[in-house]
């Protein structure tokens, strides 16, 4: 029976840690910009490097 209480307390502590981490991420601005990550794949990268072809 004491193992169940230990696991419940451990679960509450772990869940509280995840909640604190989420609140910290929201307050520090991790979720402010929701537009650019979806649009970033549409932008061109740097110009590709042309490979020299060997003449046989």
Describe this structure in words.
It is a single chain. This protein has helices spanning 2-27, 36-39. By secondary structure, it is mainly alpha-helical. The longest helix has 26 residues, at 2-27. The N and C termini lie far apart (80 Å).
State the gist of this model.
The protein is mainly alpha-helical. Helix content is 54%, strand content 0%. The chain starts with a helix and ends in a 17-residue tail after the last helix.
Summary tags:
56 residues; mainly alpha; 2 helices; 54% helix; elongated
Provide mean pLDDT, rounded.
Answer: 85
pLDDT below 50 for ≥5 consecutive residues: which ranges?
A: none
Q: SSE order, as H and E?
A: HH
Radius of gyration, CA atoms, in whole angstroms: 25 Å
């Amino acid at each position: 029976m004491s193992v169940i209480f230990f696991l419940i307390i451990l679960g509450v502590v772990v869940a509280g840690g995840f909640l604190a981490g989420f609140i910290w991420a929201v307050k520090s601005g991790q979720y402010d910009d929701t537009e650019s990550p979806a649009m970033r794949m549409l932008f061109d990268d740097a110009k590709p490097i042309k490979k020299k072809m060997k003449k046989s």
